Amino acid sequence: MRNTITFSHWMPTLRRAAPAGGFGSSQLKAVLFPSLGILTFLLLWAQGAALVNTSLGQMPGPLQVYEQAGNLWAEHRAEQARAEEFYQRLDEMNARRLEQDPDFVPRERRYSGRTTFIDQVQTSLVTVMTGFVIASLVAIPLGILIGLSSNLYRAVNPIIQVLKPISPLAWLPLITLVVSAVYVSDNPMFSRSFLVSVFTVALCSLWPTLINTAVGVGNTSKDLLNVSRVLQLNWVTHVRRIVLPGAVPMIFTGLRLSLGIGWMVLIAAEMLAQNPGLGKFVWDEFQNGSSASLSRIMVAVLVIGLIGFALDRTMLVLQRLLSWDKSAVLR
User: Fold this and answer.
1) Which of 87, 147, 222, 315 is most open to solvent, judged by the fewest CB atoms within 10 Å of its CB?
2) What is the rounded CA–CA span in Å between residue 179 and residue 292?
3) What is the largest CA-CA distance in the chain?
4) Cβ-Cβ contacts under 8 Å for 5 (sequence gap 6 or more)
5) 168: nearest Cα among 140, 205, 208, 210
6) Residue 24 pLDDT
7) Distance between alpha carbon 4 and the CA centroid of its chain, in Å?
8) What angle do CA 111, 127, 276 make, to 5 degrees?
9) Residue 219 Cα distances to 194, 301, 320, angstroms
10) What transmembrane ranges does the database entry give (predicted)?
11) What is the pLDDT of residues 176-228, one digit of tens each?
């Protein structure tokens, strides 16, 4: 189906949205220019998609992708309804058995329905945040120590520079083997696939935070360091009162970079290792090869981008809340 989004469709809407005084206010510019960029992108997408034919059919445009997003949401709601019916029937069955036999111990059974697109999104979010938190807990304290000691920096820096550029695709087989060898349990708390994805994200995303924290701590003002010496602050107070406030912008820059890298690494790891998540969804749809696969993959791609954007904006808000310099321009 040919897409019908044209310039004439959205231009009247922009005119109605414009105030009588014209496009002068900063608030209007903040809305107008991003809207123009998005509308231009959608227009180019709609026109360009109509020209591309693949082995699975025509490249989907914005309208087809929007319709497919609605279908994926409807599938999730239908699966939720089936799960609720299952647990309701299970409760009723256990209640009848208890009436017949007071000693009966109700069995706990989990609904084993189909994993939906929304389930995969939730799995990826939990995985990336777990890996990111682990990476931050390692990178920030280590970065502070490296930034405070030039000798420790000289000792650790070669290792960092060697490990930092290693691709997550190279780490993945090693992490998979290590987790399989070390994490052996008859009643595991976490699945191995979850741990493999978490450690892959953590290992690949900790470097920006580590390096930026070390640089931020190392660039602490000499005047502030002299104040700390004069006041004879102990190590903890020196770090908390003198070092960290000045290093916060660099630490958050590293955290934002780490979170973005972690999100990209996770999708690649899920695709390669077939671990649950958005990456697996994309790969499964690619292998499925149905007429709707292209649209479903496009929905996943857009959701991956939107989540990455939302994660970055969340970190930016946290930086604004925690930074002592409220007048600093953050982007």
Assistant:
1) 222
2) 36
3) 80
4) 42, 43, 46, 61, 62, 63
5) 205
6) 59
7) 33
8) 50
9) 38, 39, 21
10) 125-148, 169-185, 197-221, 242-273, 293-311
11) 999 999 988 888 888 999 999 999 999 999 999 999 999 999 988 888 888 88
